[in-house]
Amino acid sequence: MREFDFYIVPTPIGNLGDMSNRAIEVLKSVDIIACEDSRNTQKLLNHFSIGTKCISYHKFNERERVSKFIELINEGKKIALVSDAGTPLFCDPGAVLVRELKKNGKTITALAGANAVVTFISQIPRECEDFIFVGFLPRIKTQIIELVAKYSDTDIVFYESPKRLIETLKIIEQEFPEKQVSVGRELTKVFEEVITDTAKNLSVYFSKEEVKGEIVVMIHRSNSKIGVDMYADKIKLLKSKNFSDKDISIILSELYDVSKNEVYSYLVNSK
Predict the structure, then answer these.
(1) In terms of residue numbers, what domain contains 165?
(2) Which CATH number belongs to the domain containing residue 144 in this structure?
(3) Which pTM was predicted?
(4) Is 233 strand, coil or helix?
(5) Which of 66, 181, 214, 247 has the fewest CB atoms within 10 Å of its CB?
(6) In angstroms, rounded to a whole number, what is the distance separating the alpha carbons of residues 256 and 174?
(7) What is the pLDDT of residues 48-107, one digit of tens each?
(8) Quick check: 69 and 92 in contact, CB under 8 A?
(9) Are strands 193-198 and 180-185 parallel, antiparallel or unpaired?
């Protein structure tokens, strides 16, 4: 088997049974394991009887660690990078290190393995194959609204903090009430759940008790079909205020993230 200077090694996102044989072999064979939190990684290593030395590598020290790792590789050492769970570089440190290693001509490979995003969306029936992964949502409400509106025609996938989940769902409920949302929690673990519903219903559901665990969310792409039952009252109200078809199309598209052209087409054809 070909040897590399640097290995990117996914680790289980919850179920230790998902650890691959190759990942175990690599972690045993390298000289150093770069990890986010040695306490978390050590539990994993102990479980699989891996005695390789760990060195901390996280977002607060990643730049200063780069030169150290290059020095170690120049000495002939092999290094593996792991995150606390899942695949490194997915909202985890590693990009700075990989970029510098490539600049210095070091050989790098990535192992196949656990990833929360892929595990999550593979359980959800979707209209199309394309989706956009945005990491974590912005913290500012207006920026969240702008992002969801910008990508209204595709599925938006992101990680979310348990403490922010309810707040995020309420923003979606207020600004995009017609959208379906899927929430995955504790994936591959005993209390795993993946639920698809409106943001309003999900907000009520997750408000029943404290939300815990790693969370992945998908805001489904907009349904472009304009239904009379959904918009008839709003259209009637706007017409009573003497808004033109064009103005109504703009207003509804801005408020409910539906296609302006399809709203206008519905108005014209319903006369």
Answers:
(1) 117-219
(2) 3.30.950.10
(3) 0.78
(4) helix
(5) 247
(6) 9
(7) 999 999 999 988 888 889 999 999 999 999 999 999 999 999 988 899 999 999 999 999
(8) no
(9) antiparallel
